[in-house]
Design brief:
single chain, mainly alpha, two-stranded parallel ribbon, translocation, protein transport, Mt_import_IM_translocase_Tim54, transport
Length: 427
């Protein structure tokens, strides 16, 4: 006698469609332990990633709504948009010099574009490039202010180009002694010819007299300005680039929590758009015997983001010795190259078959190569002296009245109290 339970209409209909009976009678059960672990980890990571990216969009939209009204305002037809210069530099130990600019484009630029804030990105590809560029721009601007140099000619401008005076340019972008134009390449060339390590004499080359730079006058060296003109406000943005196998956990955590960077970038952009500033917090004067005591020093704007220097690779401390080792190796190999170049140039011997296929560098090319290498080594050393963790930021007391820092705008309640206080004082 059959004990098979009666089949329902749906089950009987599915059997006639060709579905095996084992499939219809099979009861669902949990996957194996390995499958459960895999599904749990995968779904958790996917959920965290989706949540993080949704929060990023939400944060961006939140701050876009805060500054959206500024883009809808009708400005004066004679006004100019605000211009912001974004400075980024290569992170020590990372060969990708564009990481800082990529961080800015992903986290900051969106909240600036809506309220008609124009920006220019300046990236330092090597250490010290930004310092050299900013110094050259300041010198050029001061020479124009003092009338030592003339501005660009207007002849090449479009016919309806709105010409602006120096005061109008100052109003658009508040920019911050007597300066001489210095040709650094000419100075380095003379130094290489005069030092004892210069093994390439100039007697074998055609003589060409070059104009020497006039020595700076003692009067110009002593005319140091007592004050520094007001400089554009500064927006300090925190940035860290994790480099190395030891920091892989930080990279993973950073990638899964991108919303924190987006919020920090949106807040920084909001501070810049609202244009609330305060004077810079200068470093305090070190007390007597501070070098032998452990007295705590308060954090100032000069010490901003100093803790991130702890993520520098420890191998960077050997940068000066690495450069000196490369320089020593180069100068050890240079005499042999010079001998070959002179022998071939003076027809002392015939070139070999390999030298015919691959001509060795001439003496002129060796001089140019030495010049290029020395420039690179010296720039790298100066750049490392700037970014190394043990180097303190140089400070001049005259900057205290010239530099300002962007800060968070006051809250709505504080803003109303400030307006009411101003109205009361006016009445």
């Amino acid at each position: 006698m059959s004990t098979e339970p009666p089949k329902s209409g749906i089950r009987a209909a599915l059997e006639y469609t060709g579905i095996p009976k084992s499939w219809l009678s099979k009861r669902p059960k949990l996957p194996s332990r390995n499958w459960l672990i895999f599904l749990t980890v995968t779904s958790s990571l996917t959920g965290l990633f989706v949540y993080d990216r949704r929060q990023c969009k939400k944060i961006r939209q939140e701050y876009i709504d805060k500054v959206k009204h500024l883009s809808e305002e009708t400005p004066d037809h004679l006004s100019y948009p605000r211009k912001v210069t974004v400075y980024g530099s290569k992170w020590p130990g990372d060969e990708d010099h564009d990481q800082s600019m990529r961080y800015f484009r992903n986290t900051h630029s969106l909240s600036w574009s809506l309220p008609a804030v124009d920006y220019e990105m300046v990236n330092g590809k090597r250490h010290g490039d930004l310092a050299t560029r900013i110094a050259d721009e300041v010198k050029k601007r001061r020479r124009l202010d003092l009338g030592l140099d003339s501005p660009a000619d207007r002849a090449g401008m479009p016919p309806r180009y709105t010409w602006r005076t120096k005061e109008q340019l100052r109003e658009q972008e508040l920019n911050g002694e007597l300066l001489d134009i210095v040709d650094h390449d000419e100075e380095l060339s003379k130094e290489l010819e005069a030092d004892g390590r210069c093994i390439i004499p100039s007697s074998t080359l055609p003589y060409k007299q070059s104009p020497s730079l006039p020595p700076p006058s003692p009067a110009s060296a002593m005319d140091v300005p007592a004050t520094i003109p007001a400089l554009p406000p500064i927006l300090l943005v925190s940035f860290v680039d994790y480099v190395g196998i030891k920091l892989v956990p930080h990279m993973i955590w950073d990638w899964m929590n991108r919303r924190h960077h987006v919020r920090a970038g949106a807040e920084a952009g909001y501070r810049l758009v609202m244009a609330n500033t305060r004077p810079i917090n200068p470093p305090a004067t070190k007390p007597l015997f501070s070098d032998i005591t452990n007295a705590p020093t308060p954090d100032t704007d000069v010490d901003f983001d100093k803790a991130m220097e702890g993520y520098f690779k420890s191998s960077l401390q050997s940068t000066p010795s690495d450069i000196e080792r490369s320089r020593k190796k180069y100068y050890e190999q240079l005499p042999a190259k010079l001998v070959i170049a002179r022998e071939l140039a003076r027809n002392v011997r015939e070139p070999t078959s390999d030298e015919v296929k691959y001509p060795p560098p001439t003496e002129v090319e060796l001089r140019a190569e030495r010049m290029t290498k020395e420039k690179r080594w010296r720039k790298d050393l100066r750049g490392w002296e700037i970014v190394k963790p043990s180097q303190e930021v140089p400070w001049d007391p005259r900057f205290e009245n010239a530099l300002t820092i962007f800060i968070d705008p006051p809250k709505e309640s504080e803003y109303k109290e400030e307006l009411s206080a101003n109205d009361t004082q006016s009445n």
